[in-house]
Amino acid sequence: MPNPRFSLVVPAFNVERYVERCLRSLVHQTLPAAEILVYDDGSTDGTAAIAERFAAKHPNVRLTRQSNTGQGAIRNRGIREASGDYLVFVDSDDELDRRALERIAARIGASLPDVVAFRFQSRYPFRIGGGSSRWDELIAGRDELVGQDTELLLTNRWLAPWQAAYRLEFVRHHGLRNGEGYIFEDQEFTAGGFIAAERASLVDDALYLYHFNASSSLREKSHAAQRRRIEGRRRSRQALVALVARLGASDRARALLADHDVHDTVQEVVSGIYSADELTEVLADVTEFLNGLEIRDAAWLSPGLAQWHALPPGERDSTSVERLVARLAVAERARVARTIAFRLANAVAAVGGRGYSVRSANADQRPNDPGFAAVFRSFPHRMLRRLGTAAGPVVRGVRRLLGGAS
């Protein structure tokens, strides 16, 4: 396929601050997309007006306005209405690298892979922090995954559909879809694509630019948002259990999904986003999910989960999962503290070229420089105050320097 046609699907809801940046990256691709399907999901701000301007100027942009149905339903509509050879999903507050479609097309060639996966780059406020994702060691250095090895893409940090381009005929043939009416709805589609694919090509470059958006529904802290998060995780887990059964997923794929879910749960525990009662509910859901995967061979499980799996079936309960998550959370807190300390030490030293010393920082040495505070506050890890003794002296020094800012 020398000239594959790409359909870009863009769900948009109240993103007037970001959607122009997103659409600009799509209409200025070095290899033009056949169609850019923008679905305004009942926005109440200026999102639709901005998209209309792009549609008026660029023939390949098609705006559809509809009542609010949620991101999963929009992506499913895009699957039904797309006419290209390959689908690419783009969130409306993110961007594609300008050469993304050109690079993906170069990997498609004559092999017509079901999936073309690529890495992503995280970007945070003030253009400080972030970095490119990396392939897992099971994938690193490979150009292609064939047969059951395509499931190794489940080692991606997030099961988000924007990490790959999908052959449209393949998606429709296997009935791949997103969940509807809840968050984390995209894991079913992404996992299904990675498991069902017969051939996946890899682009070892960050073609997707993921912008950290503090107003995202995934980062709301209200009680209602927490309930949506818990219910979304629950429904996503149930969908994944049904998916692996439908696709006849291997034990390795099931193990990778188990590790993925436990890792996400540990991240949430370290972030401190659940109350005690909520955490009890979450751990019960995780237990049901792990047991529902019906893993027979634990060889592909990480050491902690392998130990859990070695327990008699009757002891694989929420209490044992709680112990496992607690152990992993201790190690994760230490890792996060080291990461933050390293980033802060480098970023603070670079602010204004002044070379502030983080290690010797104290309240009496606080520099009168708004850029200094901006560095600290722009970091994505809002969990500093929850790290406790895991936070090293560098992190504690910066906190003192900024008067405990977080």
In short:
The protein contains 13 helices and ten strands.
Question: Would you give an account of this structure?
Answer:
The N and C termini lie far apart (51 Å). The chain is globular. Strands 1, 2, 3, 4, 5, 6, 7, 8, 9 and 10 form a ten-stranded mixed β-sheet that branches. It is of the alpha/beta class and 406 residues long. Helix 6 packs parallel to helix 7. Strand 2, helix 2 and strand 3 form a beta-alpha-beta unit. Residues 352-372 and 401-406 have low confidence and may be disordered. The chain has helices at residues 19-27, 47-57, 71-81, 100-108, 168-173, 187-196, 223-247, 251-271, 276-292, 303-309, 318-350, 370-377, 393-401, and strands at 6-12, 35-41, 61-66, 86-89, 95-96, 115-123, 131-132, 144-146, 164-167, 199-211. It has three domains: 6-217, Spore Coat Polysaccharide Biosynthesis Protein SpsA, Chain A (Alpha-Beta Complex); 223-316; 336-401, no CATH class.
